[in-house]
Every structure is written in structure tokens, then in C-alpha cells.
Amino acid sequence: MGIIGWIVLGGLAGWVASLIMKTDKQMGLLLNIVVGIIGAFIGGWLTSMFLGADISGFNIQSFLIALLGSIVLIWIVKLVRGGSAKTA
Description:
- By secondary structure, this protein is mostly helical.
- The protein contains three helices and no strands.
- Helix 1 crosses helix 2 (29-50).
């Protein structure tokens, strides 16, 4: 997947993760993209370790892996910043 694919997939995954984790009001487009790309690496690492799955291109499996990693990343950041790690 090329750089444009990473940006689009990362932006979508970061945006959906920020909606799920209720941090969308604090995050802009650039931060959603960054969270999504880093989340894709985290999600890829986690799923390859536990499930043997990997990000293989621009498809639903890759999006879900990036989404999982983005949610984990936002949760960790909320935990470290001292906020509640709960989503509700």
C-alpha cells in the first residue's frame, strides 16, 4: 500500500476510533491521520502476534486492524494523561 493509501486508511481509522472513544472534538484531521497510521502499526503488531492476520492493502480487514490499533492508542493516551480510560 502506498503513502496515499496509508493516509486515507489512517484518516478513516483514526476518525472512527476518535468517535468511538469520544475524543473527536479534541482531534483534528491531521491528528486523526497520525493516530490512524500509528494505530495501524499497533493493530498490525497485535493481530499478527495473536491471530496471524496482517495489514495487506486497502480492504476491510486492514481497516478493522487499523481501527483496533487506533482505539488501543487513544485508550493508552487517555490513561497516561490521567483522564478516564472509559469510553462512556
